[in-house]
Amino acid sequence: MSGKRSEMIRLLEAELELIEGGGCGLPAGEPMAERPMFYRSLVCINHWQVPGHDDECHDNCVLLDAVPQRHRDEKLPCHFIPLNSSGDTVQALEQRGDPERTQEEVKKWLRATIAGLKAEAEAEPETGGEEPAPY
Fold it and tell me: Per-domain residue ranges for the chain?
C-alpha cells in the first residue's frame, strides 16, 4: 500500500472516530456557535488556528480530490463533496438545519471512502509510490 494512501486511510479513520465520539459538536464555551462539518477538524488543512493567517483551502487539502471541479474555489470546498447517490452535500444538508442527518451522511461517506481506499490497496500490487486514486 502506498504511503500516501495508508496515510489517507488513517486520517479518514481518525476523522470518523472523532465524529462518532461526539467531537464535532458545538465548541466548548460557545454553546450558540455553529461549527461547520470538517472545519478545523483532523482532515482540515486549517486544523490549527494560526494568528495572522487567514483560513484558506487549497491544493494541499486531503479532501479536494473528492470535490467536484466546479466547487473547488468555494470558501469551504469540502462542503460540496457528494456524500451519497442522491448527491447530498454537507452544504445542502447544513442549510436544511439537520445536524444529525449531516453527521450520519458524513459518517457513511467516510466509511465508504475508507473501504474503497482499502479495497484499492488490496487490489494493487506493491509498487512503492503510486498516488491513491481520486475518490
Answer: 3-123
